Structures are given as C-alpha cells and as structure tokens.
Amino acid sequence: MSLDRLYLDLLDEAPVAPPPGGRARLLATAAARRRPAADCVSWARPYAGRVAAMDAVFASATAWDVEIVEGWHLQELLGHLTAKDGLVAAAVGAPVHGPPITDDEAMARTAALHAHERSRSLLETRRSWRDQADALCHALAGADPARVITAGGLRLPVGDQILGRALETWIHTHDTAVSEGLNLPRPTAAELRPMADLCARLLPMTALLSGLDAGDRSVRLTLTGDGGGDWHIPLLPTKRAAGYEGQEVALSIRADAAEYCFVLGGRGAGHEWEAEGDPALAADLRAAAPVLSGP
Amino acid sequence: MDDHLFHRRVVSGDESALGELYDRFSALLYGLALKVTRDRVAAEDITQEVFATFWERPLGFDPSRGSLRTFLATVAHRRSVDHVRSEERRRVGALAPRLFERPHDLEEGVVAADEVERVREAVVGLPESLRQVIELAYYGGRTYREVAVEIGVPEGTAKSRIRLALRRLAETLNEEAP
After folding, report:
1. Domain limits of chain A?
2. In the predicted model, what is the mean pLDDT of residues A13-37?
3. Interface contact B27-A18, CB threshold 8 A
C-alpha cells in the first residue's frame, strides 16, 4: 500500500477537468451495466436497496454451482427470492413473473420456480428475479402501507411485508457474499433503521410462536450502530412496541442493529445480546428470536 | 461523506452517489490518465471505465483495506499503463513482429511488480538526504511529523524534503516512461 501511495503522490500533481458531458454519459453507461435501485415510494426503499445490493453481489459472483444455503446454488436461491417476492406481488396486485401461482405457500412456489428456471440460463433467472422485484417496487406507488394482506401464509400490513422482503433479500445476499468470500457492507442507516424497527416489533411474535409465556412484562431494546435506536417492547402481543421513554422493564437488551436483524433472520449463531435484568427471560427470548426465519 | 457511506450507497444502487463520486474524483483520474497516456480520448475512456466498473462491481473495493480515492486512482493508473503498453506493442508489432514479442496476458501482479521495481530503482538513485525521508515516509509508513522527529529536523524541512524528493522521482520516472 505504501508503494501505491508513493506512486499516486507522484502522479497526483495536476487534476484536469475531463471534457463536459462525462457525468451524464457515465450514469447512462452505469445503469446499463447494473440497474440502479428501482424508483419507488420511500417506505419501500430498503427493499429496492437490498435488491440492488444482491445484484451487486451477483456481479462479482463466480462460483455459480456452489451450494450457498438450504442446498441451493445461486440460480435456485434467486428462484426462491423470485417465488416469495411473487407471492407478495400477487397480494398487492402487481405483475407476477413465472408460471401462474397455484398455491400461496413459500416452498410450493419455490419448487414451481425452480422447475421453471431449470432450463433457463443463470443470467435469464437473474433478469426475471430483478424484473419481479422492480415490478413489485413500482406497483407500490399508490399502495397503503398499513393495509393488511396475506402473502405466503403471513398476515401483515403491506409495509411490513415489504420490509420482510428487504430483510430476507439482505440475508440471502449476505449468504451469497460469504460463500463468495466477498465483504458485504451493511445497509445505509436509512435502509437499516426500518428493518431494525420491524425486527424490534416482531420480538413478541417470536416469543409467542415459540410457546413462551412472558406475561404482561416488557423489554427495552437498544440497537447500536448506524440504523439503531431505542424501543420499549411489551411482550403481550396485544400491545404495541414504540420508542423507549424511560418505562420500567423486566429486561434491557443491547445489540448491534445489523447483528440483531441477523439473529431474527436465523444468522445469529455466535452473536450474544448484552442483557440486564431477568436472565431467564433473556435466554428464552434469545432462543426464540430466530423462529420466524425459514428458507 | 466518508468512504464507507459512499460504498454502501453504491452497493444499494444509489445513482446519485455515483454522480457525487464523479464530481469528486473525475479530475484526479482524468489528470492521472492524461499524464500517463498523453491521449485525451484514451484518458476520458479510462476515467469512464474506472467509475463504471466500480458501479458494476462495487464489492471489488473493500474500505477496510484503503481509501476509495487510492483505489480508484490505482485502477486508473493500471489501466493507463496497460493502454500505453498495448499501444507500444501495436506500434512495435507493425515494424518488427517477432523481435519484441511479449507474453500476451501479462498478469496484473507482474505489471505491478515491474512498476514497484522502477520506483525502487528511482528511490535508490536519490541523494542520501532525500532517499532517507522517502524511505521513512513511504516504505516505513511514517507521517511527515514522525519523519521530522526521527531525523531531527523541523517539520517544515521534512515536508519540503519529501516534496523535493517526489519531484525528483517524478522527473526520473517520466524520463523512463513512454
């Protein structure tokens, strides 16, 4: 590195403005090489950004036949993402790519997409996946993020469904980057914050689904780093999480925002939470947290 | 804005981040490419290509390993040198196809090693007082201030010696360069 620095210092004496028009030419060339994030409503931007990031990892990927996760190689992983994006697309009335949906269930739809993509090239699958994701983004222009819909058996407001797609796309992008030996940067704070908020609000549901009876108690969740924040989370599913305002709690949890999201996404082995308060509740919540993560 | 944030924005497909990077670094890259190639069209193409490649495959850059400025400038420099060499090969090749034949695909590492060797020779050729500051600053990774303390001269003197040494090196390397 020091030699590079020396060489550059030798050459870096005279910046020269390039001919005019270069910026516009660059943006046109760049967009043709890798599509920019889809233009979409602000609450869908974390999803559009994670889709663009997956595309960036794809652009550097070389081991196309290697199993990445769930026994799937890159084409099957993209088929899976297309399948689940398609179920949400159908639920919001957006165009659905691939064969018609026969069963609103993630694994059945994944199998249908795998069968459909098998005879196609990886680059064709990449284009279909990206077209599906961008079509979903564009269709959200007039959508109400608070409207509750069912997609893949999951009943949530449209806004949360899209954040769920962002989270899953991020996690599989991370899986691919790890498999390729690439260093995936964390999302920008603007993208991460809404995903962290979704994961904070999902904590009571993970406890409930794990059969944990936490009673009428609440937790303070402090997520650190860019995109973090401070939440007050009642564990009774009938109550709503909100910003922490000094309430008394049974437990305080502290974790890095990205790592916390990864724990809920089932990629948290080895990430421990700093906990203060009821140690048994802390252990139970940590064990229950990945319950919503599936393929 | 720091390199990490630029990198994250580009990975997230934020075109405006690429535009801002162009505004910030295009004159550096174009000036650098122009100096090496002495060809305005080639320099403009190289500048465009460096940014476009960074956009297409942003994970080729790892902010924990160095600054974005150095990364982009290093890629621009390599491409410029490649351009000059292929032009040379083309010219020489027309005159004496067999005499100067070189391996077709020089590995990047080989090119880099060649450059490193040229710089090293130029450094060795410097007068002792200048060689000392360059070796401490670049090979030893010292800051200007640390160099000044180490050789017992005022900070301003260390700075001006380094600047003089860089100018001498630039002259030597430019004489050798095409």
Report:
1. 39-185, 191-292
2. 94
3. yes
The answer to whether residue B90 neighbours chain A at the CB level (below 8 Å) is no
Q: Which of A83-92, A162-171, A228-237, B105-114 has the lowest mean pLDDT?
A: B105-114
CATH says A191-292 is which class? alpha beta
Interchain pair B34, A186: CB under 8 A: no
Residue B41: closest C-alpha in chain A: A19
Q: What is the pLDDT of residues A103-147, one digit of tens each?
A: 999 999 999 999 999 999 999 999 999 999 999 999 999 899 999
Q: Per-residue pLDDT for A192 more than 80? A: yes
Domain architecture of chain B: domains with CATH: 3-95 (1.10.1740.10), 108-176 (1.10.10.10)
Report the predicted TM-score, pTM, of the whole model to 2 decimal places.
0.83
- Point out the residues of chain B with pLDDT beneath 70: 1, 91-116, 138-142, 174-178
**Residue B129 has what pLDDT?**
86
Q: Does domain A39-185 have CATH number 1.10.600.10?
A: no
Our CA dihedral for B3, B9, B15, B18, rounded to 10 degrees, sits at 10
Smallest CA–CA distance, residue A73 to chain B, in Å, is 20
Q: What does the pLDDT read at residue A226?
A: 94
Instruction: List all residues of chain A from 56 to 85 with a beta carbon under 8 Å from chain B.
Output: 56-57, 59-60
Closest chain B residue by Cα to residue A19: B44
